[in-house]
Amino acid sequence: MDISVIIPIYNEEGNIQPMYERMSATLSKITDDYEIIFVNDCSKDNSLSLVKTLTQKDSHIKYISFSRNFGQQIAVSAGLDYAEGDAVVIIDADLQDPPELVIELYSKYKEGFKVVYAKRKSRDGETWFKKFSAKVFYRLLAKMTTVDIPVDVGDFRIMDKVIVQHLRNMPEKSKYIRGQVSWIGYKQTYVEYQRDARLSGETNYPFRKMMRYAIDAITSFSDKPLKIASTLGLLTSLFAFLAIIYALVSHFVFDNAVSGWTSLILSILFIGGVQMITIGIIGEYIARMNNDIRNRPLYIIEEKNVEEQKNKSIETK
Ligand code: UDP
Ligand code: MG
Asked: Which segments cross the bilayer (predicted)?
């Protein structure tokens, strides 16, 4: 198998047919030996039956269907466990990422790069808030991590099966795939593209999910928040120490005891706040560990027409 394409699907009934057409047309320009794996993340609409119809018409089409909604990153991870290709493409179903770009990604890959990711030059049809928060987030994450995670890059990319094999062997349960790929290393490069608006339907990433995703990314790749927490503690203690000296001096030297409810309540609230924040930060890391230690399966598949590749040994160059 030359190329596998992984497409996570959550309520994308309006996009499946056009995606299928554009992707098949693109891939058949490269090779005849390809597969397109749709990973249905328990869509509530008609997506699954549309995909199944495609599998009957076209033997290139494979599908995996989850027993419940596990999230996009896990859907992609499942696709990776089942992909057979020498090169594996990850792409969103909503046609924000143009399937035609795969040709360019593939020719770069053929030059010998193990990963070629698609970098967004611009993004259409998204709110200024989404663009702004994405911009801030990518740059903040880049500052916080030691791994070099490229900015303005989504999961749209092509990867060699060597990379895929390493990804399969990474046991963490909260996935941040683009970070993991950077962590793996090898020769990586990018091509730039223009991100289109969603063809049909609406985004599945409301603010709450985006925050969750951001926290997963940060806790996966950085210990900075923990260090910030200890710095915060140090600063508060320093401040308290100065306040003690001030209180002692004004009592013993100037003989006027500091009086008042205001200062007292303010300092209690302040210290309380700092404590809560630091406990919250520690909590995020503990939750992450807890999730890993429970060691539940990453996903549950209700039905599929494809064979797992994960535990087959692949000769790695
Ligand atoms: N997706 C998924 N499970 C989810 C949410 C999203 O499989 O719980 C898929 C979705 O169908 C799409 C991709 O992940 O193919 C990206 O989602 P979306 O376009 O909503 O995100 P955005 O582009 O707005 O960040
Ligand atoms: Mg999208």
From this structure: 232-254, 260-287
* Owning domain of residue 144: 3-203
Q: 314, 197 in Cβ contact below 8 A?
A: no
246-255, pLDDT tens digit by residue? 888 888 888 7
Edge-to-edge strand list for the sheet holding 61-66: 188-195, 115-123, 153-160, 87-90, 3-9, 34-40, 61-66, 301-304
Domains: count for the chain: 1
Taking the centre of ligand 1 as the mean of its atom positions, its distance from the CA of residue 127, in whole angstroms, is 16
Q: Is 96 in the pocket of ligand 1 (CB under 6 A)?
A: yes
For ligand 1, whether the C-beta of 160 sits within 6 Å is: no
pTM: 0.81
Q: Is residue 313 part of a domain?
A: no
Beta strand 34-40 with 188-195: parallel, antiparallel or unpaired? unpaired
CA 231 to chain centre: 28
How many Cβ atoms from other residues are within 10 Å of residue 30's Cβ? 16
Residue 236 Cβ contacting ligand 1 at under 6 Å? no
Residue 60 lies inside a defined structural domain of this protein: yes
CATH number at residue 18: 3.90.550.10
Q: Which atom of ligand 1 is nearest to 91's Cα?
A: 15
169 lies in some domain:
yes
Give per-residue pLDDT as tens, 261-277: 777 887 888 888 888 88
> Has residue 75 been placed in a domain?
yes
